[in-house]
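Aggregate trends can hide what the representation actually does to any particular protein. For completeness, the protein is quoted in full, as a sequence line and a line of structure tokens.
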Amino acid sequence: MIISGQWLSLPAAAAILGCICGVSLAQNAPSGEPAPPGAVGSLGSMTTPPGPDPLVAQVGDQQIHMSDLTDEIRELPGGGSPGAFAGLYNIALRRLIDRKAVVAQAVRIGLAIDPTVVRHMGEASDTVLEEAYLQKATTDRVTESMLLARYQAEIAGKPGPQAVHGWAILVPTEAQATDIIAKLTAGADFSALAHQVSKDGSAHAGGDLGFVQRANLSPEVGAVLFELRPDQVAPYPVPTPVGWFVLKAGARQTTPTPTFAEAHDRLLAECQRDAVGAVIAAALRAAAVQAYDANGNVTAPPPQDDAP
């Protein structure tokens, strides 16, 4: 990905840009009450020890703590939105449990010391450090006065973004979603079906999401929902990392102009994005860079604008 003329790895770019891409709660919150720590499968009998980072699960000799769970929730679509912790608790915990079980098997058969795997683990470590440094260095370059100036120039006094009244049904498979669309086409009631089958947190409200803005939806959901006419059901299921969505649109409205406090996080992310190029340029000036061609001969580093 190229931002401000500089090359930025996709994982690092996602880290910087992710905080301006919220997702509707409907995209990730399963139906039902949030489970307490350890309430997945046979782990329900576990007790949570006191402390700042309590244990939420254990797989063999591998422990999963609340901090691990919180990090996993942040990585899921909508993980930074209000209510995400309760809505995504079971999804995130299940993913962590599965991952620990698979990792244990990988270690058991010796993959942890396989040279190729070790090399890839080192690359993953570099990516984490890259993301952490870009996050810190770009944040350090942004001041509140910069954010306020951007707010006054781009947002203050202008109409707020469009919002659409949306409904959603979340199911695990494409086949289920396709079947639901067929039933809706034949005249079934959307709210009744949402109550019966949706795994989304909006199921108790018949799938009613209220008025949602496109910036607060994932690209997949937003692209579909905002193209629908009022009272139209999407003719095909929408795939997301947490399942398949059946979407319905209602009326549209223009939202009020966001206050500075409401726009703060988005403005911060935009300013961080704008600062990425300068941060990378400064890092390059502080580094001794030498490149070689495929035959081992010294050559000039490839131009940054040539990055794919």
Notes: The chain has nine helices and ten strands. The two ends are 7 Å apart (CA to CA). The CA atoms of residues 168 and 247 lie 5 Å apart. Confidence is low (pLDDT under 50) at residues 1-50.
